[in-house]
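Moderator note: this is an archived Q&A kept for reference. The question asked for a predicted structure of one protein chain; the sequence and the answer are reproduced below.
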Amino acid sequence: MGSELETPKYELIDKDRQFEIRMYEPMIIAITEINSSYSQSATTGFRRIANYIFGGNDQNMEIAMTAPVLSSSPVNNNGIYNVSFVMPSKHTLSNLPKPNYENVIIKEHNLGKMAVLRFGGWATEGKVIKYQKRLEKMLIKKQHIIDGDFMVAQYNSPWILPPFRRNEIMVRIK
């Protein structure tokens, strides 16, 4: 995954030195739920949805990869993680094929107004927790009201070196 891949459309509402406020357009996602550790769920979830976009569907259709891969934050989730891929914008719910497996669901998703903090390197559990706490403190300081669960957005393929990786911690705000 990299900069040449399609990414979700959004309007930049505000840019602080440390974080951004974005308003996302509605999108279609392929999502799966995993009951496991943070790192294992990321791997399992990625494989399930990759299977779908690489032809594991009722039409054997290959669907273009997009970025980022979205997943639940490891904080306060009781070991249940969601991993999702955003579907290319040319697709609609009616023209996307049905997944071969029931544990992959295709649905419309509206992120809405999100606060986003970017960080590099690998999105390890410890690093995600660190940046989530940092974003939460910044939002409280700026009097933003958190309105949902934190998510992790990973933009790069596994072979991109850590200094060049792009990740984000994000949360819906009012």
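Archived answer notes: The first strand starts at residue 10 and ends at 15.
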